[in-house]
Specification:
Layout: H1 43-107
Length: about 110
């Protein structure tokens, strides 16, 4: 008996090059649902569909990163506004101190 591969470790992963499956004696004939290929579709389109399925996580990650970048862009002006207000309050306090110091100097 010449066994080239097993179910877990096939010789090739290309379905076209694998030997067709034979029905087992323990399984009644016609018990399995036959493969359904809609009219007008080919195995190439099915292959593209699996490739698209494999690329879905990458597309989701790309969309998530795009969304995060847009969120960061929207938050930047708010952060700049907060910083500007903080600097304005600091300048107002410095101005008050300078006025007070000037008033103290004039009073003496």
């Amino acid at each position: 008996m010449n066994i080239l591969g097993t179910i877990d470790r096939p010789v090739t992963h290309d379905p076209k090059k694998q030997a067709p499956m034979k029905p087992s004696a323990s399984e009644p004939t016609g018990s399995a649902i036959p493969d359904f290929t809609p009219a007008g579709t080919t195995t190439g389109s099915r292959q593209n569909r699996t490739r698209e399925m494999q690329l879905i996580p990458e597309a989701l990650a790309r969309a998530h990163m795009h969304e995060r970048l847009q969120e960061a862009e929207r938050e930047r002006p708010a952060a700049r506004l907060v910083t500007a207000r903080r600097m304005q309050r600091r300048a107002e306090r410095a101005s008050k101190r300078a006025r007070r110091a000037l008033a103290m100097a004039v009073m003496q």
